[in-house]
Amino acid sequence: MSEQAHKDVVLQIGDFHFGGGRTRIRTLLGSCISIVMWHPRMKIGGMCHYLLPRRGTTEVALVASEGNYAEGAMQLFLRELRRTRTRPEEYVVKLFGGGSMFKEARERGDAFADHTESTTAALNVAEQNVNAGRELLAVNGFTIAAEQVGGYGSRLLIFEVWSGDVWLRRGNALATNDVGAAA
Fold first, then answer.
1. What is the pTM of this model?
2. What is the bridge-based pairing of β-strands 7-10 and 23-29?
């Protein structure tokens, strides 16, 4: 690669990448969370994209990638810290995502006219994801330097490992009547 060239890594749900060099990591978030960690001295770092705060007990959950869950994503980061012989306090840590994708539903407290406990839980997953990320970071000795979480809509996130810069672009939440029109 030339001096100016860089490697692009696109994270999908459940993906994780940690490395160095001229690497740019990007992802698109809704209610999911990305934790970005950067070691300023070593110019290494990584990003995760997790879907849920914790692994359930369903058959699907049991076979899903550990990166789909906050706890598993944290284990992937800790594995990289052991490998690179670095410590949590050496990293600049940022937390992103946890947006509600359906604004009117969140404001009303339900996704559909038939309000059930499961729809309430689905609407709160973004908030649960944020809380899980914060708790796991604190328990493992990380300090959050910056966060942009909650609210409505999507986030396009780009992390340049060589500089530690994180770029963020916000998208709009869908109106619940837009969802019905698309069906």
1. 0.81
2. parallel
CB 131 within 8 A of CB 137: no
Domain boundaries, the chain: 7-182
Kind and range of the H or E run holding 105: helix 103-108
Per-residue model confidence as pLDDT tens digits over 65-107: 778 899 999 999 999 999 999 999 999 999 999 998 766 554 5
Alpha-carbon distance of 24 to 150, in angstroms, equals 24
Phi/psi-derived region of residue 158, left when phi > 0, alpha when psi is between -120 and 50, beta in every other case:
beta
* Range list of β-strands (E), the chain: 7-10, 16-20, 23-29, 33-39, 44-48, 92-97, 144-149, 155-160, 166-170
**Which CATH number among 3.20.20.80, 3.30.1330.200, 3.40.50.2000, 3.40.50.150 corresponds to the domain 7-182?**
3.30.1330.200
Nearest-10 crossing angle of helices 70-84, 117-139: 20
